[in-house]
Structure formats: structure tokens, C-alpha cells
Specification:
Strand 8 and strand 9 form a beta hairpin. The protein is α+β, with helices and mostly antiparallel strands. The chain has seven helices and nine strands; from the N terminus they run E-H-H-E-E-H-E-H-E-H-H-E-H-E-E-E. Strands 1, 2, 3, 4, 5, 6, 7, 8 and 9 form a nine-stranded mixed beta sheet that branches. The longest helix has 15 residues.
């Protein structure tokens, strides 16, 4: 007799706050260098604390198998007339600026959805995105934005503006994550050319990547969406990652 899969329960973190301390039980799939974005390191850990009703968790038999985070912010206003070219970094800054200033947010942005490796390929990313959309809609927000990191991009020299135009025969994006968003009703709006900025000394980049970083110029790093700019004379390298803004009308 075939063994049936246990049901997966998805709720907001506000409904099950006991999972807040367990959100790091499994590692994300990001490469090591991606953990050194100063904006992300400063703010991401605070998102579940301040916005638990916009964070979603999925469990199976009590085990955390996926979680997602989003953040509310004000948009547009007199100073924010367009989605930021600073993408993920900038929207994190906007969200916490608005929180400190006591401003009333009217939209939200997805920040991440992480799936436990054992549960990949089960359609959980679609379910988590839908749960996040529902959580944001419950706040009264009519729009969920997402600075999507298209993990399927394998040619670091290809401009992101070209990559986002690559479609399958069925008209959906070739990139798996963009496809998840489009299938959920999202619309690709524009590229965020400097969504994450990660800078470090050459010794730090050697530690993060295992590469020599001994020649000035572009360095192709595995799982980086674009080349890293290396400057041997000044002992630093900088990675400027483009992401893709997607808009969900709820």
C-alpha cells in the first residue's frame, strides 16, 4: 500500500509565534557570499518580530518545512514615484523607515520564500506565495510587489533585461521563480539593476567563494547572476545584483 504524504499546514507566523525561533532550522539555498549583504543582515532578522502577520510558515507533522517573509511600506508618495532601482535592499530600508516614522503602509513587498530541501518539487513554493498574497490582502493592501531573484539565470554576462524576456513555448517565463509569480497572477514590471550590493575585501571574497580574486576585472562566481568587480590595487570586490520587480494585484 502506497504511503500517503502528511498534510502541510500553512499559516501566518502571528498565528503560530512559536515557530519564530525555528525559522533557521534549515539552511537556505543562497551561496555564501549572499549572506554578506549589510542591508539584509541589518533588517531581515527583524521582519518576523515586527511583521509576523505578513510572514508565513508551513509545517508537516510539526516540522517547519517552509517559511516566507514580506514587509509593508508606503508607495507611491511624493518621494517614491517609481519602484526603486535598489530593489530588495531599498524596499527593506523603506519598510523599516516607515515603521520608525509611524507611517501607515498601503502596499507590501515579498522578501523571500524558503523551502526545506526535502520538500522541493512538491509545489510548495506556489502554496507559500498564495499564502503570502492572502496575508497581505488581509491587511487591506491591494498590491504585493516582489523583487524576484531569478535563480535560473546561468549566464552572468547576459543582461537581466534580456533574460526576463526569455519565454517557454507556453508563454510563461523560462526562469522557474519568475514563472511561479506569473502563474500566480504577477506581472513583470521592470528590472531592479542594483537590488543587492555586496562589497568585501579580496580576502573576504576568497573565503566566501574559494576563488583567487588576484586579477583586476570581472570575476565569474558560481550562482552569481552577474560578474563580481575585482580591484586588486584597492583590495576590494563588489557584487551588484539585478533582480526583477513583479507586481501582484490582489
Amino acid at each position: 500500500m502506497a504511503q500517503t504524504e502528511s498534510p502541510i499546514v500553512i499559516t501566518t507566523l502571528a498565528e503560530r509565534p512559536e515557530y519564530r525561533e525555528r525559522m533557521y532550522e534549515f539552511a537556505d539555498a543562497w551561496p555564501k557570499f549572499m549572506h554578506n549583504d549589510p542591508i539584509g543582515n541589518a533588517f531581515m532578522g527583524q521582519v518576523p518580530i515586527h511583521f509576523p502577520d505578513q510572514c508565513v510558515v508551513a509545517t508537516e507533522n510539526g516540522e517547519l518545512v517552509a517559511h516566507g517573509r514580506s514587509i509593508p511600506f508606503v508607495f507611491p508618495d511624493e518621494n517614491r514615484t517609481e519602484l526603486p532601482s535598489g530593489g530588495w535592499d531599498r524596499v527593506l530600508h523603506w519598510g523599516f523607515y516607515d515603521l520608525r516614522a509611524g507611517r501607515e503602509p498601503n502596499v507590501s513587498s515579498a522578501l523571500e520564500i524558503l523551502i526545506r530541501p526535502s520538500h522541493l518539487g512538491r509545489g510548495l513554493s506556489h502554496q507559500m506565495l498564495e499564502a503570502m498574497r492572502a496575508a497581505v490582502k488581509a491587511k487591506g493592501h491591494a498590491t504585493l510587489y516582489a523583487p524576484v531573484r531569478p535563480n535560473g539565470k546561468t549566464d552572468p554576462h547576459q543582461p537581466m533585461t534580456q533574460y526576463v524576456e526569455q519565454l517557454r513555448p507556453d508563454g510563461l517565463p523560462e526562469d522557474p521563480w519568475l514563472r511561479v509569480h506569473v502563474k500566480a497572477g504577477g506581472k513583470i514590471v521592470q528590472v531592479a539593476p542594483r537590488s543587492m550590493v555586496i562589497a568585501g575585501s579580496l580576502a573576504e571574497w576568497r573565503d566566501w567563494t574559494g576563488l583567487p580574486f588576484d586579477t583586476t576585472g570581472e570575476v565569474v562566481v558560481p550562482k552569481a547572476l552577474v560578474p563580481v568587480h575585482c580591484d586588486v590595487t584597492h583590495d576590494h570586490a563588489v557584487y551588484v545584483e539585478p533582480n526583477v520587480w513583479v507586481r501582484h494585484d490582489l
